UniProtKB/TrEMBL annotation:
Residue ranges annotated for the Activator of Hsp90 ATPase homologue 1/2-like C-terminal domain, each copy included: 16-138
Pfam families recorded: AHSA1
Family: Belongs to the AHA1 family.
Classification via InterPro entries: ASHA1/2-like_C (IPR013538), START-like_dom_sf (IPR023393)
Name of protein: Uncharacterized protein YndB with AHSA1/START domain
Record's signal peptide: none
SUPFAM superfamilies: Bet v1-like
Coiled coil stretches, renumbered: none
Amino acid sequence: METANNIAITVESIVNAPVAKVWESWTKPEHITKWCQASDDWHAPYADNDLRVGGSFTTTMAAKDGSFSFDFGGIYTAVEDNRLIEYTVGDGRKVSIIFEDQGNSTKVIETFDPESTNPIEMQRGGWQAILDNFKKYTETL
């Protein structure tokens, strides 16, 4: 994955849970709203997910103080249960998430095209923070 000026960014984590549990936590709206934020002063009050090729998803990310919110969403281009999710966001950037079954743990590798507004390290840090929240949430289910 490459954009005109930037090479894709990858974040990853090993989640101490079997792949079926990790997949469910990643894909079910009732779980997404519990982990999809980069910091404690944000939350995800809404999530909708039609997990199939051609299906769409939307997650609302909002500051808890009500000062700012935005919807993050896209269209799925590939879905392989317990293994792979790929999608394109509204501005055309591509995202790929690989779920590597490691028995009692799952390696999650998320690769995404950067946007052109924020520095690469800020984007990497934000996506890694969300993935870290996902790991923490999923391991306590």
